[in-house]
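Why does residue order matter? Because the sequence determines the fold. Keep that principle in mind as you read this record.
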Amino acid sequence: MSNIMIITPSIFLIIAYYIAAFILNYLSDLPKSHPLKSFALKKLSINRKAIAAITIIVVTASSLSYMYRINNNDLRIFFIDVGQGDSALIISPTNRKVLIDGGGTRDTIGFDVGTQILLPYLLNRGVRVIDYVIISHFHSDHTNGLVAVFENISVRNVVISRQSSYTREYEVIMEVLERNNIPILIVEAGNRIILDNYTYIDILHPGERLIPDNMRGINNNSIVCRLVFGEFSMIFTGDIEDLGEIELVRRYGSTGMLESTILKVAHHGSGTSTTQEFVDSSRPQIAVVGVGRNNQFRSPGTRSNKAIRRCSGLEYIERIYMEKLG
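Structure:
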């Protein structure tokens, strides 16, 4: 059994299809004595004429679509509704693509968030190649959808950090990466991923010294990274908790490296994260929380709500249903 993955066609190609269909239908309905049909039959034959017309239209539409993509000077960030979990797609002005996490669950037995949500979402946006997949840490709510991506979309690099301990999710992902010959980049604080002349991602955490695992596992060693595009910045925090936020404030609090236009609130806004010191250091204008509707953890929690809402001028987005399929 084999599958063929097809991206959603652009609006230009859809228009081209209907124009080509109209031309073919118009020519076929003309009487043979009509000058246009007579010309087609004499010079090329109706079939060759149709093929030529379709080719010209499709090539023109494809060129316009491509020119639109490469000349779009906007940085685009999509927060993908994967239920209780995190996933974000970044598209740089030069069309470099970064996927940060791909997990989540719809709390339904047998529901595969990768094949049923994440992969269709990416194909719907014409994503054929992903330059970097950043895995903040190896818990199911951040990795559940990635296997389908690795199996069906060309991924140039996967970015991870050193592991303080190993989970079942780590073993599964490593096996898939090895089977598909996908390169792995191991990063730490101080590294930078340059996407283009306008856009880069700084790795802020973890550093050389990993935080010892606590009762909640590997959360505090999640990759924390800062996306920068001109005056705009966004911090992606994975599932760091108090200890991780304290370490970040200690290391960067006086440098301005934590300041961000948008803050992806850590650990889905649970009560173990979002210390006031961290929010004050990051000074976000917008906070984004990735949670599932009526989730069993009751996230975001009271602590996150209070800390965020004390931040002056903040717009708080409690649920991610933007860019939702279906």
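Confidence is low (pLDDT under 50) at residues 310-326.
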